[in-house]
Amino acid sequence: MWTAITREVSPALGDCELSYVPREPIDVARAVSQHHAYRRALEGLGCRVLSLPAEPTQPDSVFVEDVAIVLDEVAVLTRPGAASRRAEVAGVAVALNHYRPLLALEAPATLDGGDVLRLGRTLFVGQSARSNAEGIGQLRALLASHGYAVQGVPIHGCLHLKSAVTQLADDSLLLQPAWVDREQFAGFRIIEVDPAEPHAANVLRIGNALLMPASFPRTRQRLIAAGFHVATVDVSELQKAEGAVTCCSLVFRGAE
């Protein structure tokens, strides 16, 4: 069974960190409603959803993916690149402790979970403003005994690696070629986002199904034409906070 850990939207979401999108007013009530619909979509795709309470003093805390990496054997608590987000780790750690042994990155490492794309036994990590060389090196050392390789990937023009590329199937990726070099993923079938939808590369894979924002219909049609089942959800208010569908949950195998 799939488990998805989520966190309710903070009432302070409008004070979120932003890097590559302009700041716009965020309708927090609408964001809360959209997040509820997102959780229902996860349930519809077979997840048991655990929802943690909102954190009023942590604007970005709905984006739980950034504070942990959950693997089959262990979970790694990250050290987010934005100092304002480091207090988010503790609450998610309490929830994860029920499911996995915990490891943790330490200063001066920084690493956001949104920069980590697991493909088989290799973790590709975006070399971004949020994830530094020390973070990548510590992650490599922590996971070596568990049989994982860790490989840094240059990105540009986007916040995280998973802004630029996500997994569709064991052998297939969705990629934005303007933000990451497709040659980094030689051997994989690559589907590129529609040029009119530059932010469309972030999709959430759960088993054989995909979940993506409703705002990218052209890219969705590319995926459907390629034989994928693609569900959609409106996350427009969360997108104003530089969010997407992977970052709002930690999805992994395992249940109580």
Overall CATH architecture: 5-stranded Propeller
CATH superfamily: L-arginine/glycine Amidinotransferase, Chain A
The number of helical runs is 6
At the first level of CATH, the class is: Alpha Beta
- Counting helices, strands and paired strands, the structural category is alpha/beta
Estimate what percentage of residues fall within beta strands. 25-35%
Compressed to H and E, one letter per element, the order equals EHEEEHEEEHEHEEEEEHEHE
State the helicity in percent bands. 10-25%
Question: How would you briefly describe this protein structure?
Answer:
This protein has 256 residues and is an alpha/beta fold. It contains 6 helices and 15 strands.
